[in-house]
Design goal:
Blueprint (H helix, E strand, L loop, with lengths): L6 E5 L3 H13 L3 E6 L2 H7 L5 E7 L1 E2 L2 E2 L1 H9 L4 E5 L14 E3 L4 H9 L12
Parallel strand pairs: 1-2, 1-3, 3-6, 6-7
Antiparallel strand pairs: 4-5
């Protein structure tokens, strides 16, 4: 049976952080695609049906997620960044939201809700 929940592409190179992000997004009622740990993995997931948003860690080890952000923008899919760094280069995406790590489920929900509607079954506790 296909999921009817909107899908979010999660991109995070730290395994445990990605697992927690996936759990937090699922608790909000989203289908989670990923988490992808590399640009190549994320690009392969972009054609997932129902993809409504990308949540991208900016720093992916030896690379950054800017190519993924551009691919999302090319598909008219909104995004938000998540980063543990105070300042990161993310041209030309300076206007996109950046959540600071560590983040809470409530902060993630608030940031997403400012971009796309949360599923009706979402839990922000």
């Amino acid at each position: 049976m296909a999921s009817t929940a909107p899908a979010i592409l999660a991109v995070e190179d730290a395994f445990l952080v990605g697992l927690q992000l996936k759990r937090d997004l699922e608790a909000l009622g989203f289908e989670v695609v990923g988490p992808a740990a590399t640009v190549a993995e994320a690009i392969e997931l972009l054609d997932h049906p129902g993809l409504a948003l990308g949540v991208l860690d900016i720093n992916l080890g030896a690379e950054d997620s800017i190519p993924i952000a551009q691919a999302l923008r090319d598909r008219d899919i909104p995004l938000l960044f998540i980063s543990g760094y105070d300042s990161v280069a993310r041209e030309p995406f300076e206007e996109d939201t950046v959540l600071r790590k560590p983040s809470t489920p409530a902060k993630i929900a608030k940031a997403i809700a400012a971009i796309i509607p949360l599923p009706e079954s979402s839990s922000t506790d």
